[in-house]
Amino acid sequence: MFLFVQIVHVQAASAPKLNRTKVTLSNKGDTYSLEVTNKKKGSRYKWSSSNKSVVTVNKYGLIKAVKGGNATVRCKITYPSKKTKVLSCSVVVRIPATDISISNKKLTANNCQTIKIGEQYDFNRKLTPKTSTDTVYWQVEDTSIATVNSKGV
User: Fold this and answer.
1) 42 CB contacts (<8 Å, ≥6 apart)?
2) Among 6, 49, 60, 91, which is most buried by a count of CB atoms within 10 Å?
3) Rounded to the nearest 5°, which phi and psi values hold at 124?
4) pTM summary value
């Protein structure tokens, strides 16, 4: 007598997920297409943004940067059984500075700012565009002569 045994491996279907959980956009108007992988037949997918003033998303998952800041883009999946699942992606929009200038400088003939001993001077920086999300860092080459704090003073 012969006994034949057939072994069948059954794997659970992979759950739907987003192709990215974090996205950084580098300028106003930049776009990125979020995609749901492992979609389930018969399910509905609804996209939303937690902060539409920073990033918008269309019904296909295409996100678009509006201004600098942070937002969460969500995709709500409604399965045929009416159960729901929410997928999320953290989005950061950075607006780079194209120019930086000191608006209150008083330069000498040799293109230097002169400050007297014991005097304090507040450098007012101006970033272009005004909506830039860049951070300015201040430093002095020779700290035995002068110091500067994080605010440019």
Assistant:
1) 79, 80
2) 91
3) -95, 110
4) 0.73
